[in-house]
Design a protein that fits this description.
mainly alpha; single chain; 3 strands
């Protein structure tokens, strides 16, 4: 009969060869038969196996060890190199399944200590272990730890590096870890710096797994956390995150309506402000124009050939920026009727530009509902969709509601008078 590896089964098919799998037929008796033994018999069999594998008849020596922790520290770990030298996967799996069963007998704090000890021993000899087999064993160690154990953080960091190296990042990135990442900070009692380290590991996993949406969400969390991180490595981390920061800002500029909130969040972060006095300074200025919806400021910025050259280098189109800022300007106007001249001034329509083409651009943005009255030369702004509500927008809304209230009151008064006649 054979023991099976004590690792998480991915319940997969033969098609997914990159996932750690159970390995049947490994030693002298079935795993379940071993697990069902009373603790004393388990430890005795564990000591016997290690003694046989360790050579020089160490069975008697190992049987004298007291408790599972002692047997792991003084039996399994010193014997591991000799087990690996045999190059028998069955011997390794048999010893590992017994070791893991012994770990389950320990209380939380003690278990954390010995789980990390076994992890260090396996990682130290990882060149002698198949990468997927090692990943399966490390995953099992992670799962042996209590959910609130800080040792899980250490284990996860080791798993993250090896998952990327083994090209199985998606396997480690389940939805729960991504959605509960902020809860993990509390659950694992992480410092600000440790949380930065965890977020960076998740970002690398997302990048390896091509999870772009999740990457974008985590990146903002990471950059915000670096602002609070006072560790000496934080400055280096900010420098290393430069390209990611630039890509994030570029993606926000190209979708300024959907990314309004994130633009506000990222604009004041150190990761962005550190770019001000570099060759990417124009990007920071452009971001701030978008945050403030500063049309005139942007037009002055765009008069510089250097700034236009920088935008071209980053695939930022001046004409598209103009359209965005015109939508911002139109959304600031109170609802109502306007002459062509008033709209031309508000939207910075230059000589030679067709006002009707500009209005069509507004309509196509789906942010402004406009109707053109060519006969009277009027433009009716009937509805606008705000990127976010600032004090000025709340004030305008209050004015509109007051007008509506007065209008309703006037209609009711007229109806009341009509009934009395």
């Amino acid at each position: 009969k054979g023991r099976r590896a004590f690792c998480r089964n991915q319940a997969g098919s033969d098609k997914d060869e990159r996932r750690p799998q159970h390995q049947p037929g490994l030693h002298t008796q079935d795993t379940m038969a071993y697990v069902n033994l009373v603790e004393e018999d388990q430890l005795a069999e564990f000591a016997t196996l290690l003694g046989e594998l360790g050579g020089e008849n160490k069975v008697g020596e190992f049987k004298k060890l007291e408790g599972p922790g002692d047997l792991i520290e003084k039996g399994f770990i010193p014997t591991l190199p000799k087990i690996l030298e045999t190059k028998k996967k069955s011997a390794l799996d048999a010893a590992v399944v017994m070791c893991f069963a012994a770990l389950t007998k320990l209380k939380s704090a003690e278990k954390d200590k010995y789980v990390l000890m076994v992890k260090d021993a396996l990682v130290a000899r990882e060149k002698d272990i198949d990468s997927m087999h090692l990943l399966a064993m490390l995953t099992s160690l992670f799962n042996l730890l209590d959910a609130s154990s800080k040792a899980r953080f250490s284990m996860f960091m080791v798993l993250a590096d090896r998952a990327i190296d083994a090209d199985v990042a998606p396997w480690l990135l389940d939805k729960k870890i991504l959605s509960d990442v902020e809860d993990l900070k509390t659950q694992w009692n992480l410092s600000v710096h440790d949380y930065s380290t965890l977020l960076l590991a998740l970002l690398n996993l997302c990048q390896a797994a091509d999870k772009k949406r999740e990457f974008g969400e985590l990146l903002l969390k990471y950059l915000e956390n670096l602002d609070e991180d006072k560790d000496s490595d934080a400055k280096t981390a900010l420098t290393n995150a430069k390209e990611w920061t630039i890509q994030a800002v570029l993606s926000f500029i190209k979708a300024p309506f959907d990314a309004a909130r994130r633009m506000h969040q990222i604009a004041g972060l150190k990761a962005v402000t550190q770019l001000q006095n570099t060759e990417d300074g124009p990007l920071v200025k452009l971001l701030n124009f978008y945050v403030e919806e500063d049309f005139k400021g942007y037009l002055a910025f765009a008069e510089s050939k250097d700034n236009l050259a920088y935008m071209a280098k980053k695939n930022i189109t001046h004409d598209i920026n103009i359209r965005h800022f015109r939508v911002f300007a139109a959304c600031k106007l109170p609802l109502g009727e306007y002459t062509y001249q008033v709209i031309e001034k508000a939207l910075e329509v230059g000589e030679g530009e067709d006002i009707e083409s500009v209005i069509i651009d507004l309509v196509q943005s789906k942010r402004v509902d406009v109707k053109i009255d060519q006969a009277q030369g009027l433009i009716h702004i009937r509805h606008t969709e705000q990127r976010d509500f600032k004090d000025s927008q709340w004030k305008e809304l209050g004015t509109q509601l007051t007008k509506w209230k007065e209008g309703v009151k006037s209609v009711l008064e007229q109806l009341h008078k009509a009934r009395q006649m």
